[in-house]
Predict the structure.
Amino acid sequence: MEAMTANNQTPTKVLPALEAVNMSKRFGSLVALDRVNLTIKPGTVHALLGENGAGKSTLVKCIMGFYQPTEGEVVIDGRSRQIDSPRDAHKYGVGMVYQHFTSVPAMTVAENLVLSRYDNTKLINWKRESEHLSEFMAASPFKVPLDVPVAQLAAGQKQKLEILKQIYLQSRILILDEPTSVLTPQEADEVLGLLREEVTAGNLSILLISHKFREVMAFCDEVTVLRKGKLAGTGLVKDLNISDLAEMMMGEQRELEQIEKTATSTDKTVLEIKNICANQDNGLPAVKGLNLKVNSGEIVGIAGISGNGQKELVEVLSGQRSATSGSILVNGETYRATREEMFRHQVFSLPEEPLHNACAPNMSVAENMALRTFDRPPQSQRGFLNLTAIRQAAKSLIQTFSVHTPSPETPIANLSGGNIQRAVLARELSSDKTQLLIAANPCFGLDFGAVDFIHRSIIEARNRGVAVLLVSEDLDELLKLGDRIFAISEGKLVYESTTAEADINTIGQRMAGH
Amino acid sequence: MFLTAIDRYSWRKSLEAICIPVGAVLVALIIFGVFCAVVGANPFGVYGSIYKAAFGGWSAWQRTFIQASPLMLSALCTVLPARLGLVIIGNEGALVMGGLGAIAVGLSLGESLPPLLVQIGMAMGGMLFGGIWIAIAGALRHYRAVNETISSLLLNYIAIAFLNHLVGGPMRDPSSLNKPSTFPIAEINRLGDIPGTRIHYGLLYGLIACIVAYILIQRTTFGFAARTAGGNVRAAQIAGLPVGKLTIIICFLAGSCAGLAGMVEVAAVHGVANESLNVGYGYGGILVAFVARHNPLASALVATLLGGILASGGILQRSHDLPDATVLVFQGLVFLMVLYSDSLYGRFAFFQERETLPSNLSPIE
């Protein structure tokens, strides 16, 4: 408590240094973080780089007190500190800005700022608060109108508000978790530029989590790179170039275990995407004029960091989102993802998050497995379902794909994640007439056995002549499975190569927008 | 080994689906009893009277069935869209519009056609008017993302105002003095009683509609597609199902059931269209749908139960000196308890499926 009052009432001009010493975090047998050291010097912008799942969030969650590290300690101002919650972190002047907005949309900016305070005032003197807030806003690096409801702010302004909250709370060390992922490049440059000025003026220190090299090169002083939970490198940004960073992030040697691929003739185009454009949910363009061909018997991989339009592209191909312009051809015919077209061209999908994207949670396992076939004989005749046929088909799929379920009548939501995934795989991979398969992060969150099974199934499909479009955030997966590989960045394909000739560093740079 | 494990039918879940709503009705009965005691009536006497007026003897059953038939039809107006994930409460409006459609057809055909054809025409008119009414709410939902609950509620007010306007002016029979009404349909075109009873044929309409709705939802590809879209729109889209078309067709069918209830009220009970069309069968239907957990067959049973409660309104006034709105208190209590009981599913260990691990497989996660 004493530390808190001291910090709140007389903000020292001397910025504290933050160190994470020998941090490890294990979840059961999974080592998410393995003896990582990180030092943020006062008055610097420090970048934390790494692929998805490299341990960046785990590290900052340990610093912020969301997780208790299995080993290691947080040192602030030269003293080891026990941080049990974000509230404790705030006590030591450490604040975090999350990737997603945490403001109440229906309340005004001023109300949100007051709400963010940790004190337990029962009564709010709005007259005094608004005077205080106006003074604060006049002196702050960003200007956001105080009386406007947050819902009316643009994304850039909302992100500024999130940062302002931390400044309002007098945080001296800001941790920013991919703060620009929801911003346009212009908004991103503005926000980071203003923060950079604050840091240069000695008012803040910043830890910036990012996977955009451009931001690191332009705005950061030092960088720490994590790979698979371990420290992969650290240094001054001015001593490093982009290919050094890419190498640290991706690793030098990658041992790829090749699954047997048979040579297939690949001159028949199955999927052709012509100049497709699509918007995100918020109406901003996500896919910007993308062209792509996938031939029969080949796997085309699209690499990219999430949020670069690949999700929207997959949704357009699966019929979950309408394109704003452009066209999709399957076997040379216009394709609008209707059921009739899906059946005629035998198009199947393996979406990410199957429970969210490909299952009706309250319907039974058998019904979910029949989703592709229920309106065809033998599962139905003249519009009437044949429940016995549906049940029999499900029973055989349950056995073939080892889906662990109490019965075919169990609602699919009662199954574990891995089993839901298997049920969807059974439905989408069991047809032997498949011509086109659209897969998006099909292995996300699965154990090794399941991953291997999915990889084999995809390659088998390819060997049968299926055209496969594989969108993944896992570069290893793409290099292992793909025949050709593309990189997507900001809604455009920015790299193309055959997998054999693919250069990992270049892919990494392109993915990061370079 | 494995096959025997997945062959087991999950009777525990079925038992849960019966015990929880029955329990909710029992709790509502107890609270209602306390209410009666506070007002000064003997709760057990009241229970006895309700039972006697609703189900005590053939004539009581007949009154109950007469009340139940429009409830069955109007319940389907909430049941069908619910399977698609929509909450439609425009039953009253669709019923009123259906009554208007039926009277319009009945009056314009007059005695030009055989009665059976006129009755079919009236039924078609009622279904068409009611169907379009709810299809409007469905179309607003799909194309403009307007909340279907609110829009269908507001459509009720419009329909009732429209009815009052028509019977008060353009369609008014000058001889209807106390209660402005349309001209009556020809006596010969009225829907008769099932032979040997005082129950009109509307009961058969209701029962058949509930059975057809059940088959449609559970046993046809259309119902399968609708349930998929209701369960998860994204999954329906990935399977290429036409979600917009499903929404509008389901809403049309739902509205046409309520519209048919309006036709029954006009053709079998009143012979005219007037404000007696909106006496609450629409709202009662919402209650039935929720108590029946949106199962069409269960709706027929619940409608009979609620019909019995409604039929006992008069006796409470006569024998216990309770206001006849007392049954509405009971109805409201039942509704509240059943909605509350929805939160109890999955809370009782007894009703949960027992996981039997097949010996040849190890758990995957």
